[in-house]
Design a protein that fits this description.
single chain; 213 residues; Rossmann fold; 2 domains; elongated
Amino acid sequence: MRVVIAEDAVLLREGLVGLLERFGHTVLASVGDAPSLVEAVAEHRPDAVVTDVRMPPGFTDEGLRAALDLRARHPDLAVLVLSQYVEQTYATELLDSEGGAGIGYLLKDRIGDVREFVDALDRVARGGTVVDPEVVRQLLRRRRDPLLRLTPREQEVLALIAEGRSNSSIARELFVTQAAVAKHIAGIFTKLDLPPAADGHRRVLAVLAYLQG
């Protein structure tokens, strides 16, 4: 199997290279940031990608967003996410891509055996789906409660909206700009699945979701 690895932690990245080569796979490139991952895939056209979620430049969800972009460009590319946590915002979208074929999401601290990891990558490369049960549990919980999709800051903003605060009032309360407040509110509407067609009522609908939560 021809693989590209994306992991910002140098020791772990080199360890993955050695592990996969020991099991007979070819590591075409090992990179430490999301832009380099996209470039490596374009250059080498691997069979599979192993990527972390949090990587430079922002150390948020760059790796997962890069994986989504790569799946859109190369639907037959197998992707195995290897992370310390569940990035809920984009994980579901990735797992839904191409019907989930050739996708894996494993948590680093729950892998107890190296062969288990290599077997998981092999299954993903053959078009299978491998997802850690803890990832499934968290994603199902998120689907039951849309409020869990919100970041802590978005939850703060929504709580202030529920108090009837205007954008300017929220900005003063949180010591941020009104533009930042507007961005948070747009994120709230998106994550609560409130369509633009309901624009005149979305603040009310968001408040109802908050109160019901």
